[in-house]
Structure formats: structure tokens, C-alpha cells
Amino acid sequence: MSINRHRLCASATLQTPAFKSKMSRSTAWIPAFWLDIFDELLNDDNELDYGDDWTLNFNYSQTDEVTNEQRRRGWKVYCHNAYGNFQCGSCRKTWPSARVVLLFRYRLQKGRGTVIMRPFGQACRRCQDGEFDLPGFSRKEVEHALLRLFSKIRKNCYGEEEGDEGSSTSSTKVWTKPHEKSLCEACRQGICCQEDE
Questions:
Q1: With helix as H, strand as E and coil as C, how does 94-138 read?
Q2: Does the model's pTM come out above 0.70?
């Protein structure tokens, strides 16, 4: 199976009010949307206020495995389930999912923090064409995923206790149809992402 990376948008588009209102139900995978919110949380909200520089990158082939050598170099992995929306690149059918797997790999080394993210796709039940479509997310879901990631970073890179930010940032439970493992890219690769709440 392959990944369908259709509909990437430029960052400038993210500034228009019409675009922001559409993001609540967006089915487009937009890396710039994640980058902008990552930067806002770091710079405006001081989520990782330790004087280190953090960057967010994307790798669409990374797995949840960390070798001993990678561990020695400080890499850690965090897996997160999010609510997202998909659209089939072939038939244009849309569907929601409360089990969108996001994989984050991160480390802090010599004052520079690196986060590498991978969103996992889902295949269309109707087409079954072997393509995994990438999800779109609301701003609230992106913020929630990144705040959970920052909590893990503060714990594992800075030795802070993991706080309970659940009250103000937790996602509202949205019931969707049962998760179909055969259509989930992460499940097909054996990456089970159970939240450690």
C-alpha cells in the first residue's frame, strides 16, 4: 500500500478567516498548519520555556522502533490517538476517525530539540484501492496532540512531573464507527497506539 499525499497547502493560506473556519472539518493533511501551531505554542505560550530551540519535522516512513544506538543518542517515541477527518483521493468519500495515529520521535541534544512527526493514514472502505489517505485535523486537535507531546518532552527531557492538562485541552470524545484495523496504516504495520492516560 502507498500513501496519497494530495492537497498540501501553503502557510500563507492559513491566515484567512475562511480557511480557519473550514479547518474544523478539514480532510486535508497540511504540514504547515502543524508547524504554525507548534511555533505558536512554543513562542507565544512558552510551552517549553527552557531556552532551547525546538523544531518540528515530518518523516512519512518512521516507525515506533528505537534502536539501542538511537536510545543512546537520546531519541524517545510518543504515540498519540487523535480525531481526524479523511477524504479518499479516488472517490472523494469522507469519513471521521477517532483513532488517527500520530507518531512523534523527539530528543534534546546540546540545546537543540528535534521532533519528527508521522501521521498515519487510512484506506477508503469503498474503493479498497491500496492507497492510505492522510487525515485533516481541527486546530483544537492539533493543539491537544502538541500539548500532550510537550508534556512528554518536559517529563523526559527536563525531568518535570507530568502535569494534568486534561481539563482545558482534552479532546471531546466523538463516537465514530468501530475501528477497522485492515484499513488503518498504523494497525497494518503493527503500531498499536493506546493512550497512557
A1: EEEEEEEEEEEEEEEECCEEEEEEEECCECCCCCCCCEEECCECC
A2: yes
What are phi and psi for residue 23, nearest 5 degrees? -65, -15
Cell 512519512: give the residue: 60
Instruction: From first to last of the 197 residues of the chain, give the pLDDT tens digit.
Output: 444 443 333 333 444 444 444 445 688 999 999 999 999 999 989 899 899 999 999 999 999 999 999 999 999 999 999 999 999 999 999 999 999 999 999 999 999 999 999 999 999 999 988 899 999 999 999 999 999 999 999 999 999 987 655 433 344 455 556 778 889 999 999 986 654 43
Task: Write the DSSP symbol of residue 89.
Answer: T
